[in-house]
């Protein structure tokens, strides 16, 4: 597969997640709800998480935004649902490191989200890609600060 075909495949994966996001909606009894926005482009995410015994039992998001922010939120939710909060924090750190400092070596642990390494070619879009991840980071921190379940 040549680089052009690979780029097309990555682009299609992002479009698929944006048009048919996983975990899109609301949770009835969320333990944490974080609302973040990117004032630069107008992306808004409302992330809801249910924690159980330091694990992410359920996660959902809603809001409006570009294809990158919606796809990133969908991919993140797929990745972290069922993980411990410690694992999720590690994935957040790996994702942010990839976009900020090391886009040429995306981590296989990120699953589909590794394709978002291509966003670094468009610096203004990095905030779009990281919005959901930063919301999850805040949700975990707030849950830990409040003693968890």
UniProtKB/TrEMBL annotation:
InterPro entries: NIF_FeS_clus_asmbl_NifU_N. Residues 10-128 form the NIF system FeS cluster assembly NifU N-terminal domain. It comes from the Bacteria. PANTHER family: IRON-SULFUR CLUSTER ASSEMBLY ENZYME NIFU HOMOLOG (PTHR10093). This is Fe-S cluster assembly sulfur transfer protein SufU. The gene is sufU.
